[in-house]
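hi! just following up on the protien thing from before. the input was this:
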Amino acid sequence: MKFTCGRIRILAVKETKRLFFSQWLLILIIVLAAFFRLYKIFDTPPSLNWDEVSHGYNAFSILKTQKDEWGVRFPLIFRAYGDYKLPLYIYLTVFSEMVFGLNTFSVRFVSILSGIGLVLVAYFISLRVFKEKNISLLSAFLVTLSPWSLFLSRVAVEANLGAFLFSLGMYFAIIWLESFRIKDLSLTLLFWGFSLYSYNSARILVPVFVAIILVDLIRRKRFRQLALTLIILLIFSLSLAKQFVDKTGRARFNLVSLIDQGAVIRIGETREKSPLPAVLTRIVYNKPTFFIAYALKNYVSNLSPKYLFFQGGSHYQFSQTDHELLYLVSAPFLLLGLIRVLFKGNRQEKIIVFWFFVSFLPSAITKDAPHVLRSILVLPSPMILSSLGLRVVLSEIEGKFFFRGKLLIAILVFGVLISFYKWWSDYQNIYQKDFSWAWQYGYKEVVSFVKESYVRYDQIFFTKRYGEPHEFIAFFWPWDPASYLKQKKWDYHANWYWVNSLDKFVFINDWEVKENAKCLPAGKAGQKSPQEFLQNSAGQANAKCLLITSPGNYPEGWTKIKEVYFLDGKTAFEILEKEI
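and the predicted 3d structure came back as:
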């Protein structure tokens, strides 16, 4: 009896030590996740891009005036440039700007927290499904150092917030599959509902999963939960319905849809060349068949090993080109995890596999596939499935080898660390230098220079070469939102809102700079419309003007006073002045 009690005490002590070790290991993983998402966040990526400054300035405008940059009070969708951004990321940024001010860190703060939160969600989903702390810790570790998650967690993209909220909803959905408690269902729907206002991909995936839940509730005759689901769905859908009616909710999809004017032209050309009878030609070649064929092709491209494990995406602001999204060393385990669940998985495991495969739909039905950002809601399912694959191997070799699988875990972790070191080194050094242009680097430096010398000039001409200069001026100045709304002049065409002037600033298409960068007499610059600016001729007295333009793109008579360079040493902007 004494021997049995002593053994129980020893086992209890060992279990306590294991628990204590696991807790500290999880804390270490979270600290690492925070460190790599915060390290040099002001400098890497090298600058805020136009979407980030749009998020930041709209949040700043809400903070100061309770209106967005277009004067709409507390909008549920932000007009921005005409691409209509979803609101949740911007509203959360209001709080970070309230604490940290208007700067790079406050704009990227929500995404940083979302990336760290994704690590925790991966841990708790794995723990819930597999009931093993080691496997759960591995899932969290893989998300921590994942190129896919890490890159986007350092950028102010609403997609990263959407991925966190959607995965949090998945966590409670997995709990609900066990408990069928109304509380877990409510939390599932709540977080999925918020994800609808975070990123457009959720507007495709959430209805799919909600439909599955509705069918399951009807089948099980859980009418109370069915009523709750419908009520929550109605609450979150009210403003969505309005947005789809007035087309603001479809604006972004229309920009990236597979069916555009180019597609219509290609369908027509194919019909003309078809040897089939006219009736069959119309049946074979039309918008639905075109859409389905390209969507299938796009979907397969998202699952390509070349894309996932070697080259990544081609969009410079969402991933490093010619670098992996998922580490190659984890590929065999991801495949094993998928196979294991497809043949022997329980209901919770199968929902994770379904999550993995359905998450590529938003990328499949839009242009530019495969697309890193539009398929981000897949995270962290690949890491969870890779951990499951490792568990499958460990269960097969347990008791057959001296280390009982610990060596395999060590090899996987070591392989991830080596791959991560290469990726991180290139990200901090090569990517920064080679792709600063993709981040519209130089605007901050230009705005700083112009602000210091602003009072000395009557007109300031600014090229639109790198996109939306007015927004960078508004953000980096920062411009008072109430004045900004009154002083900017704009027009709408080509499904875009073009700001043409702001106070002394005149914004000109790059190819029109040589013709239209013309000085006006002092005292008249602030009184003229952009059209009047451009219609006046040079040669009038008493005016001093500034021109910010692309390299070598300026008319005669201007004196160069400064150049701003990309990080690779190439000239981004030339700044010139002229006095008449």
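The radius of gyration is 28 Å.
Residues 366 and 548 are 36 Å apart (CA to CA).
cheers
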